[in-house]
Each structure stands twice: as C-alpha cells, then as structure tokens.
C-alpha cells in the first residue's frame, strides 16, 4: 500500500502572506514556500512560532524571493532544517538580499527578529539555483520543475508529479504576473490536465489599466506632488515589482513628461539592486537590455541608495520633491513606517500603494480612507494624498488570471484558492467555476487534504 499523500496549508490561507504549504508524498515532506506573515496586529508574535518541525522537512521549493513567500527560510535553518532549498537562480540571489536586509533592519532598530545574519548566511549555503523547465527528482515518484510566473524576476509556478509514473499532476502558482510587461517575461503557460491546482490571486477582483495608461496616471500624480513641493512615499519591497515602477519613472523623465527628481531606495543593505538584477538577463524578455547604461530596463540615472556610504544622512537631509521607496509593503514596520510617520501629516505629500494591502495593516487603513493611523506607538494624522496603483504591483488582475487558467487547456479536477482577502478569494473561486472547475476549495490555516 502506498503512503498517504496530503497537502497542509500553514500560510497563505485566507491571507495574502505567510505562504507555506506542506506536501507529503512519496515518503518526502516538502514545503511549497516558507513566507512571513505581514501586516496587522500580532503578526510579529505569529511569525515567531513555526507550525512544524523544520528538522523533519526534506526540501523547500520557493516560488519567489518576496518575504511573504521566502522570508522564513533562515528561521527554518535556525530551528534545525538541513535539507535543500530549490529556487530559480534569480530568486536565490534576490532572496539573499531580502533576508540580509531583514536581519540588518533588526540590528539597526534594536528589535528582536526571527533570525540573525548568521542564520541568513547558513541558509544561503542550502539554496540551489534551479533553471526554469529542468526537472528535479526529489524521490523516485516525486519530481518538480519551475515555469516562469512573470511576477518578479525569477518568480515561478511549480509543477509537481507524484504517484507511479507521475500519475498525479500538481500545479502551484502563488503569484502570476501581468502579460505585456516591458521588464519581465509573460507568465508561462502550463498546458495539460491538472489533478490539483493551487492558485493565488490577490487582485482577482480588480481590473488593472494597461501599462501605457498607468504611466500617464503616474506622470500626473508625480507632477501634482512636485508642484505642491511634496514627496512621494512608496512602501514596497526593494526588489520585485518596484523595478517596473522605477523603470516607468525613468522613462517619464527621459520623455520630459516629469521633472528630474531623485528616487531614493531606503534599504539597510549597501547593495545595488540593479546590479543583482543584471546578473540574470536570462529572465527578462531581451537579455541584452540588462546591460544598457541609459534607457534600458535597469536605468538607474535617478536612483540613490540610502544604504550606501553617507546615503542615509543625505536622504534625511534632503528637502524638496523626491520619490522614496522603503520596505515594508504594508507600512507597519521598517523604513516605510519611518517615512509614513514623517510624511503623512503633510498635505503636500503623496503615498503610493503598489502592493496588495493585508487586512488591518497600515496600508489597508490608508487605502480605506483612514483619517489617522497608528504606526508603532504613535497615532499619525493622515493629510497626505493616498493613491493605490495596483498596475505596478506585478500581480495579474481577474481577466489576466482567467486567461492563464484557460491556457492550461486540459481539465482541472480540483483547485485550492490561496493568497488573497475575502473579496479576491471569492472572485478567484468564481473565475475557476466559470472556467469549468467543479471542485474548488478555500483552505483554512492548518487544514489538511488527502489527494
């Protein structure tokens, strides 16, 4: 008799962060992602408690480098994980940057993090860079491969086959990107019958504007803020979809649609993220563009690094218009919280929300029109303009998700919907059912399912 096969959802269930799914099959225990929870009250304490014994996990497969998907890897290592972490080469390198930044941010603020820089270094030794569309046999009857998800540089959908002869096909797509991005490849189709589909869609309820329309809207927002003498605060991860936003700002400036103004990346690590991204020309539509000094997708003419020597002092002393990009995406912690406390009370300023905002996070409250928000122990009045710009989130909208589901072509026998709030999840369920998927499940945190 074959061993039972199960999926257990420890994170990303009824929430857009904390992505962690345990697959037990072919005698192996494999995590699909290992992410931190972000946003809301009590999240710090929730991240301190691991829902399983890392020493009993054989492997981790990462769908992307974002902290909500990969942020717990050093914590797993700290508590006994010694297996292999598989990621695309770009995800491996970007995750190393983000893990380092998180460890350093706690050192700078004096806070107690869930791991240290030593844990980050130990974790990096376990990560194997695995190219797209190259099969890896984890066990005799368990094989996986990555396909380009088009969400962030290196992001992947994951195909797994288990059972005799690979008889059961699982497709996991935590975050699909938008087709038509000038910076990233379109999400890759994964045609064929799917026995188990696990799909996330935090913007399944949305309809994003085309990139060209979004660029005109962005120009208007920047010009209005500059005319007021204000600053644009962008709570966002330092690598990922924010580079589509940076590329758009650079292009607007070169086309003389906006004035010249600095784009500050306020991160704790003294690392040029454009350099890290340029290491992976294989992951962008025209790889040779990675090396263009001016006008290419990684144009950095306006970018300033606060993590570089003297950079933080220069940023704090800066007066007048600027764009400031700072973690975290939800605005609750880190450098983003610092800049929001400073800028929200001033009506000259603008806050741009690129990412999905977790329920009850600072960003979620701002998006819903709060007149004041609590950041740490401080109640901060909101007089700045708050503008969501999901077109630069890197997330597919409802119709883009529908198109990808249709590209599967074959029957989808069962689907699990993850990574989104109630509205997004409900819309994703509707999309799947309209596309002929009869068995659609919204898992709860900690719930297990045999397959």
Report what the structure shows.
The protein has 451 residues and is α/β, with parallel strands linked by helices. It has two domains: 6-206 and 394-450, Ribonuclease Z/Hydroxyacylglutathione hydrolase-like (Metallo-beta-lactamase, Chain A), CATH 3.60.15; 211-392, 3-Layer(aba) Sandwich (Rossmann fold), CATH 3.40.50.10890. 28% of the residues lie in helices and 21% in strands. It is built from 13 helices and 22 strands. The chain has helices at residues 43-48, 67-70, 73-78, 89-109, 117-124, 211-228, 242-254, 273-278, 311-317, 334-343, 362-367, 398-407, 422-434, and strands at 6-11, 20-25, 28-32, 59-61, 84-87, 127-129, 136-139, 142-148, 156-162, 168-173, 196-200, 232-235, 263-265, 303-305, 323-326, 350-353, 372-375, 378-381, 385-388, 415-418, 440-441, 447-450. The strands form four sheets. It has a seven-stranded mixed beta sheet. It has a seven-stranded mixed beta sheet with strand order 7-8-9-10-11-20-21, covered by helices on one side. It has a six-stranded parallel beta sheet with strand order 14-13-15-12-16-19, with helices on both faces. A hairpin with a 2-residue loop joins β2 (20-25) and β3 (28-32). It is globular, with a radius of gyration of 21 Å. The model has no long low-confidence stretch (mean pLDDT 90).
């Amino acid at each position: 008799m074959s061993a039972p096969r199960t999926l257990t959802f420890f994170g990303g269930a009824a929430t857009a962060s904390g992505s962690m799914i345990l697959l037990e099959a072919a005698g192996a225990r494999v995590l699909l992602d290992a992410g931190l929870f972000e946003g809301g009250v009590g999240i710090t304490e929730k991240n301190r408690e691991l829902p399983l014994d890392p020493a009993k996990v054989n492997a981790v497969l990462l769908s992307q480098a974002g902290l909500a998907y990969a942020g717990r890897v050093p914590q797993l290592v700290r508590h006994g994980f010694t297996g292999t972490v598989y990621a695309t080469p770009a995800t491996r390198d970007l995750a190393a940057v983000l893990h380092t930044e998180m460890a350093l941010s706690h050192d700078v603020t004096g806070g107690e993090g869930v791991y240290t820089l030593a844990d980050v270094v130990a974790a990096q030794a376990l990560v194997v860079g695995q190219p797209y569309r190259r099969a890896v046999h984890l066990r005799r009857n368990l094989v996986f491969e990555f396909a380009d998800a088009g969400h962030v540089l290196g992001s992947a959908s994951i195909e797994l086959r288990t059972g005799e002869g690979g008889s059961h096909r699982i497709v996991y797509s935590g975050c699909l990107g938008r087709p038509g991005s000038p910076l990233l490849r379109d999400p890759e189709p994964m045609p064929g019958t799917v026995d188990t589909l696990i799909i996330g869609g935090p913007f399944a309820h949305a309809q994003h504007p085309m990139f060209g329309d979004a660029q005109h809207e962005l120009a208007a927002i920047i010009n209005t803020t500059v005319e007021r003498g204000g600053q644009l605060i962008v709570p966002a991860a330092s690598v990922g979809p924010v580079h589509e936003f940076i590329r758009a700002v650079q292009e607007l400036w070169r086309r003389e649609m906006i004035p010249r103004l600095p784009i500050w990346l306020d991160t704790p690590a003294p690392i040029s993220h454009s350099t890290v991204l340029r290491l992976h020309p294989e992951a962008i539509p025209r790889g040779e563009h990675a090396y263009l000094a001016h006008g290419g997708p990684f144009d950095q003419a306006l970018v300033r690094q606060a993590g570089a020597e003297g950079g933080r002092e220069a940023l704090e002393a800066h007066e007048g218009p600027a764009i400031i990009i700072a973690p975290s995406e939800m605005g609750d912690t880190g450098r983003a919280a610092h800049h929001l406390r400073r800028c929200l009370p001033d009506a000259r300023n603008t806050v741009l929300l690129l990412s999905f905002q977790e329920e009850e996070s600072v960003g979620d409250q701002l998006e819903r029109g709060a007149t004041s928000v609590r950041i740490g122990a401080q109640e901060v009045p909101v007089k700045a303009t708050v503008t969501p710009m999901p077109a630069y989130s890197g997330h597919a909208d409802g119709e883009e998700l529908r198109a990808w589901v249709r590209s599967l072509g074959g029957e989808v026998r069962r689907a699990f919907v993850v990574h989104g709030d109630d509205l997004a999840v409900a819309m994703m369920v509707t999309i799947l059912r309209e596309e002929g998927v009869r068995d659609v499940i919204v898992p709860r945190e900690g719930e297990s399912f045999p397959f």
